[in-house]
Design a protein that fits this description.
single chain, 260 residues, alpha/beta, seven-stranded parallel sheet, globular, binds 2-amino-2-deoxy-6-O-phosphono-alpha-D-glucopyranose
């Protein structure tokens, strides 16, 4: 894995956005894997800025979101359908017809999950997947003990995740108990992974993901099995890494031709 430690959130967004921009420039009809949460917002801000400046065109890119709550109306502002539309599709100028979010309202959940996997395959797979990380090490909504080979499916949210996300709802009880999420096996199939994290609240999860054993106890540790994963974090999120100096040295000495 490549670990990039940067001074602040804006810089995290700028460098991670450059990885995405490189893919969009090379393959303007490719597929982006989209994450919700606060962590990737700096990426979307930077990409929207570059799109507005005419440097990037997202109009032919496909998008596949990682996850969605089960049973939450898509008109609810915190449904991931609404969040993706508000924070990604509109600001980047993507075609809403080309942006997919897992179906949290399906009558037949397993069939809807299988259809989502098939849609990703039909699009030729995901070229670059954006990821945040939960304080418990989840990616997408793959909570600890998720199978490392899992595909899109229903999951039960942990009380910790529901509490973390309660700030977006009227009350803690209003946070749905279930979600549908791309699996860890689905995420591993993306050609490139870019995980971003900011702040000390993520430091423990980042240390476990990057330097701990590959384990379903920290779902993000599955990135260690991917051939092209980049972790872009600020100093707070890096504060529990043992080998931080080596990662800084590697980034500072990265050959220019190797970026991004
Ligand atoms: C959410 C999302 C994840 C996200 C994580 C962290 O619940 N399902 O995709 O990475 O939790 O969120 P944040 O970036 O707001 O800390």
């Amino acid at each position: 894995m490549e670990i990039v430690i940067l001074p602040d959130s804006a810089e995290v967004g700028r460098v991670a956005a450059s990885v995405i921009a490189d893919v969009v420039a090379r393959k303007p009809d490719g597929a982006l894997g989209l994450a919700t949460g606060s962590s990737p917002l700096a990426i979307y801000d930077e990409l929207a800025r570059r799109a507005a400046a005419g440097e990037l065109d997202f109009s032919r890119m496909r998008g596949f979101a990682l996850d969605e709550y089960v049973g939450l109306d898509y008109a609810h502002p915190e449904s991931y359908h609404a969040v993706i539309d508000r924070t990604v599709t509109k600001p980047l100028g993507m075609d809403p017809e080309l942006v997919s979010v897992p179906d949290g309202l399906a009558q037949d959940v397993p069939a809807a999950c299988a259809a989502y996997e098939a849609a990703i395959d039909a699009a030729g797979g995901i070229d670059v997947q954006i990821l945040g990380i939960g304080a418990n090490g989840h990616i997408g909504f793959n909570e600890p003990t998720s199978s490392l080979a899992s595909r899109t499916r229903i999951k039960t949210l942990t009380p910790k995740t529901r509490a973390d996300n309660a700030r977006f709802f009227d009350s803690p009880e209003a946070v749905p108990t279930h979600c549908v999420t791309q699996g860890l096996g689905t995420i591993l199939r993306a050609r490139r992974l870019v995980l971003v994290a900011q702040g000390e609240a993520k430091a423990e999860a980042i240390a476990a993901a990057v330097e701990g054993p590959v384990s379903a106890s920290c779902p993000a540790s599955v990135l260690q099995l991917h051939e092209h994963a980049t972790v872009v974090i600020d100093e707070g999120a890096a504060s529990r890494l043992h080998n931080a100096d080596y990662y800084r040295y590697t980034w500072a000495n990265k050959p220019e031709w190797q970026r991004y």
